[in-house]
Amino acid sequence: MNEQEGHIKEFLASSTYSQLSANQQKHAQDILNRFTQHMMDEQHLADTAWTPQAVKEVMVGDFIADPALTNQFGIAVAPVLKAYLSYLDVANQAELVAAIDEQRTNMNHCRKAHQTWAQLHGDQQPAAKETKPAEQKSTTEAAPAVKPLTKQQLADFQKQCGHAVAVEPEFQNQELDAAGQQYVVAQFIKLMAQECNEYPGSWEFHDLQRVLGMMMPLDPDITAKQIKNIVPTAQALFDYLKRTKQINLEQYRTALKAIAKMQPSQDMLSSLSRRERETQLMLSFIRSNGIDTDDVKTAEKWMDEHRQEVASFMRTLLNPWSDYERQQMATKRRNQARQTSAGAVKRRVPRGIKFSKKSRRKKHHKK
């Protein structure tokens, strides 16, 4: 256990922690683990050496951009951080608290959009749409355009990656066997091209998360074990493409950021049925709009008022398997019709049998 982990453990057993609300206590450990790790990785600062500027940058960075983070998590961030600083009793506590309060609104915008502040404002995008062609040519920062692959090029790329799964070191010693990894890799490449029109070199953070974190778990043919291993398989693919220089460093970083905090949600989704996965992803979408789904009345009211948004979101996720969905719906209707028909027959048959027996007895008696 390092020093920061020790501080967090001590804080969670302190009277300062006990003064937090139930929601704040629920999220405190996750908030502090995530925040202190991002401070170390991005700012190289231990928890007793934070600066106001570093705190403000981390609050609107990858720390808060994960789509799995709920509104309740976001609400708890500021009070938990301030309580932790109070417990540590750092010298610049007042300045750090002021920085947290100042950045709180911006952080909430980032959480709702599932993007960092830089991504929200285009700082990490290639050339802005308004940039003139002459300006694009003159800047060295503008990323070169990535041409869409033809059907044959896409097929060749999928074949190449399928072969890489079997022989390249990045894919060895994985929990998922080669066949399982090949399916995950093939579906990922296919969905990024088919649903997002994006290819290696043009992958975008939001679309990577949408495909890997939401669409792929709804694949009717994917197994629970494959869902659980989407993240390690995707990382192996990204590592391989970077090593072979098929994607650049910036694209590699974008890809890794997209899967950085995805594993817990994939583990959870792998334990559910496909219908339950649909429900869970819909609830995640509702929570991302700041709605407490534990409050049933509030959630239902919001859904009633935003039916089109919810339906559009689910249609987007289910679009790759629209034929399967139609077949499932048709099968369900046929089964319901059979059950209705069978019920009607069961209700009629006993009366018919009794009537028939009575008729026979009456006829026999007359004789």
Structural description of this entry:
26% of the residues are buried. This protein is 72% helix and 0% strand. Mean pLDDT is 83; it is low at 124-144 and 349-360. It has 367 residues and is an all-alpha fold. The chain has 20 helices and no strands. The protein is globular and about 70 Å long. Helix 11 packs across helix 12 and helix 14 runs antiparallel to helix 15.
Please tag this protein with its features.
367 residues; mainly alpha
Briefly say what this structure is.
This protein has 367 residues and is mostly helical. The protein has helices at 3-12, 15-18, 22-43, 52-59, 62-65, 71-88, 93-113, 117-120, 133-138, 151-167, 178-196, 205-215, 224-228, 230-243, 249-259, 263-270, 274-288, 296-305, 307-318, 322-366.
Number of strands: 0
| Computed CA radius of gyration, to the nearest angstrom | 28 Å
Helix content: over 70%
Structural class: mainly alpha
Distance between the termini: 99 Å
**Low-confidence sequence ranges:** 124-144, 349-360
The biggest beta sheet reads: none
Which term fits the overall shape? globular
Number of helices: 20
Topology:
Blueprint lengths: L2 H10 L2 H4 L3 H22 L8 H8 L2 H4 L5 H18 L4 H21 L3 H4 L12 H6 L12 H17 L10 H19 L8 H11 L8 H5 L1 H14 L5 H11 L3 H8 L3 H15 L7 H10 L1 H12 L3 H45 L1
